[in-house]
Amino acid sequence: MPDLASNWTVDGLEWRFRLRPARFHDGSPVRAADVVATWRSLASPSMRGLRQAELEPIASVDALDDETVRFVLREPHAPFLSTTTIGIVKRACAEDGRECEVGNGPFRIVSQDADTVVLAAATTADAPPALPGVVLRASPDGASRALGLARGTIDLVQNAVEPELLPWLERRGLVVDSRPGSTFQYLGLNLEVPALHDPRVRRAIAAAIDVPAIVAGLLAGHARPAGELLPPGHWAHAATPAQAYDPALARRLLDEAGARGLRLQYKTTNVDLRRRVAEAIAFDLAAVGIDVEIRPLEWGALYGDVRRGNFELFSLAWVGISDPDLYFGWLHSSMRPPRGNNRGGYASAAVDRLTTEARRETDRGSRAGRYRAVADEVARDLPFVPLWWSDVVAVHSPRLAGFAPSPTGDLRGLAAARWQGGAPPRDGGGS
Amino acid sequence: MIGLLLRRAALAAVTACGVVVLVSALLSAIPGDPVDAILGERAAAADRDALRGSLGLDLPAGERMARYASGVLRGDLGQSLVSGRPVADLLRERWPATAALALAATALAVAIALPLGLLAAARPGGFADRASLGLATFAASLPSFALGPLLVLAFAVRLPWFPVAGRSGPASLVLPATTLALGMAAVLARQLRGAMIDALSTDAIRAARARGVPSSRLFLVHALRLAATPAVTVLALQAGGLLAGAVVTETVFAWPGLGRLLVQAIGARDLPVVQGCTLAIALTFVAANLVADVAQLLLDPRTAREPGAA
Description:
The structure holds 2 protein chains of 2 kinds. Helix content of chain A is 31%, strand content 25%. Chain A is built from 15 helices and 17 strands. In chain A, helix 8 packs antiparallel against helix 10 (247-257) and helix 14 (349-360) packs antiparallel against helix 15. Chain B is globular, with a radius of gyration of 24 Å. Chain B starts with a helix and ends in a 5-residue tail after the last helix. The chains are: A alpha+beta, B mainly alpha. Chains A and B meet through helix 5 and helix 12 of A and helix 2, helix 3, helix 7 and helix 12 of B.
């Protein structure tokens, strides 16, 4: 809610948010009652339980006056703050349980269908955007997206252009704006596979993969090798160094563990780039004596297998990380599927204790200390192999100015963007 | 004719039942859970269970299938798990885009294949014959995910004549329809050539030639009529395939048709939509077969007398 709250206070289990003046797209003011109704509507069964888990710690939410919202939690729960970033809709709409199209952001919805969402600048915003509008369009084919950019029918594509096409687009005058991102790519390991249960084998896998070479060769340099989940700049970043590429160390560790000639199956998506990354990793692992069979799967099948723990190796990313409470659902020993995301079967008393304490602790400094300790434990145990933080790569028309890609890859930057030298002869941009 | 239609209708019903059973069985066998696809990575177990219950996914597979089948009989194809909208509405929305694309591609394919096939058959081994063989080889070896972007690069980027993607008026139809039509035309032209050469060597044509029928009339009327029968069958089946949704081409051109809907639904494990699309596709094939049979009947009435010709 940093967009809507002017400030907030925490007193034990009670959080009070003070709203700053804001207006809905129909001109009516955003009041505390709207916030309360929006939150209560999330708890209704018709919302299909999308965020029920995040509501669990909340005992009550009510409006103290028009500008003050009070949440009372059942127990101390620091990640609560990061869940308060939902869009607020009008009370009448929220109470009806209808789909609400009137919001209070910088753009309002003009129309939407399966493939297209048309947005127009909201005149009700404090500082209305300079862009007259934005058209968001589904463009499922990578080559087609690049060609649309080249032709000028697409003005902006973010994180969806094949790295090897970037130079071609740059030569055609498009702007490639690449910035450090927070999407964390990792190699998932199933610790219940006997060989992978041995930490020396996990360390050997990490040391055998030449991450910088893969970043340079396959990602055109648009990523930073990672040693932990949280990127530099995050308030709980622990500055854990990335594992150095050391095939000699990998061979030695495999010999010690008696795991030479290990055979593993690696599941990944059937997306071209992901397959090439898998092939590069398999090549590196073969060089130290681990035979990897790559199984490219369609997304639904891959995700189903990963969720059920039906894998030996897999590669996935955490996208848009903000609160490190992610560690709890990912690594706490009680969070085995289907309850949580601990698919590899990691169990560490220290990590269990630290992640539990950190979610109850409201002081950010103390939380950060605990999460740094988690990062240290994880760097030692390697329940997964950190690979890299992907950059946010925006490719846009040279006439689009003032657009800053955000680290999480959201499109908030469009509110500050503008056309240089007049809008193109179409109704707005797209992505 | 009536008998043929009745047999076809019965076949369509059997096909529909088979599709419902087979698709249900396959969908429950493949990995991937619609609840995961909808809720995503960070949802809690309680939310998953709640959603699973509200979607009826916790029922045994047999009961789910029975419910679905009885819904289909009442004309109810169920609701999308993702958007909550009726599947029938989604199919109705997407159908026109696919139909427009299929019709345009078929017309274009015929426009290319007819002259090419005839010219090739007129002088086997001549220039047109070799050109048609060249086109057939080229089109058959170039899949639409490669041909589509190449056409876009040439005729939407270098020469900005047509839109890159999307459905926005007749001009946007040209490149996707051409992508589909080239492959069809290649097969069709070779088919027509072969059938024409066969027809020209039949006794009927030789007899007509002996009676002094001018050779142009012999070629364009008598032989073409004989050759048209197998060519129309091939064409109808090809068109049926297109109506079923040209999955790859629709994806390359962001064409909002049935093929795209099916791909999206499979990715999201949106089972009722996958089932609805598959059912629509199967019935389209049955209908295309029927059209082929009827056309064959009209072109060559002899087939009607043969029992089991359907």
